Amino acid sequence: MENFTYTGLPARVVFGHGTINQIKHELDALSVERALVLSTPPQADQSQGILEELGPKGVGLFTEATMHTPVDVTERAMAQVEALGIDGIVSFGGGSTIGLGKAIALRTDLPQLVIPTTYAGSEMTSIIGQTEDGLKTTQKTMKVLPETVIYDVDFTLTLPPVMSITSGLNAIAHAVEALYAENANPVLSLMAEEGIGALVRALPTITKSPDDPDARSEALYGAWLCAVCLGSSGVALHHKLCHVLGGSFDLPHAETHTVVLPHALAYNAPEVPETMDRLRRAMNTETPAAALFDIAKSGGAPTSLDELGMPHEGLAQAVEITLNNPYFNPRPLEANTLLNLLENAFSGYRPTC
Ligand code: NAD
After folding, report:
1. pTM for this one?
2. Contact, 33 vs 60, CB < 8 A?
3. Which of 161, 215, 228, 346 could be a cystine partner for 202, CB 3.0 to 4.6 Å?
4. Ligand 1 pocket: which of 98, 118, 233 to mutate (most atoms <8 Å of CB)?
5. Mind listing the pLDDT tens digit for each residue in 149-171?
């Protein structure tokens, strides 16, 4: 076995159906007496329910969380934190809400209890991205790592089927890149394989029966493991491309991951035989990149950058931005092969490996 380094991030995880009923106990364990509940506007009704569940510990509700954590929204939330004497954050929602909770923690060091309702995985990472004047900056600091995560499967039942597919493929992308990251290690590889397997089994069932409690449970379990991979390992070409396409061309987060992942994997496949063996085993297929494409297609999710509104003339610019900032990838990055990858992603070509 090759030498390796593994850094696990501390987190308390409560997982299951109906686990929201442990929230007061978990806030006690964090010594939180005055919590602010956060959500996006569409989840305001449910977050109101969480606030009521908290009784006297629930002192405020802020329902303006927005994609990419704009600083002006954080400042409005901070005004409530200060005015209400808040001593803990409850983030209810996906990556956008969790991002707002992290932004408050960055400024205050307040403890965060997170209830994720998508599969994006921010709850297990010490990464925060914030947007100001149209510019997104990302940093890594333990200040933003949530202390407690309550995974309650019941809250994921309402995630629409197509969003479940794109969010699930977003999660799978974290684990795929952990398998071939520069700091890949056997512990994360175990989690990656298990997480990918769980999601790949669950997602087609969710497409047919979004209320299936067992498939939802398996998907959230898989998403947690994939999130641990994102929190503890590096990333490579796939995440870099999605960052460029999202940041410079304003493409949507989970959908971009969905479209790019089969192509980034096909690009790296010749250089990562061990990863491909693990994926074949985890996904029960001889052609993992094609199988990822098929999950998206049969789930009604987008499979081309064209569908996401990417301008064709932007592909060369995306390659240029990607190459301007060198970073680890198992296969060397060259302009012509990268452009070919993006052309395939643009047209919605199904990879063969
Ligand atoms: P999101 O949080 O923006 O949610 C998308 C939409 O789905 C919102 O309107 C939300 O209200 C709705 N929604 C969420 N859960 C729902 C449910 N169960 N039922 C019905 N509707 C629901 O989307 P996301 O993909 O979870 O997060 C994307 C953001 O998270 C991006 O800004 C991304 O950069 C960030 N992110 C950060 C990290 C990190 O480690 N820092 C990791 C992953 C994603």
Report:
1. 0.98
2. no
3. 215
4. 118
5. 999 999 999 999 999 999 999 99
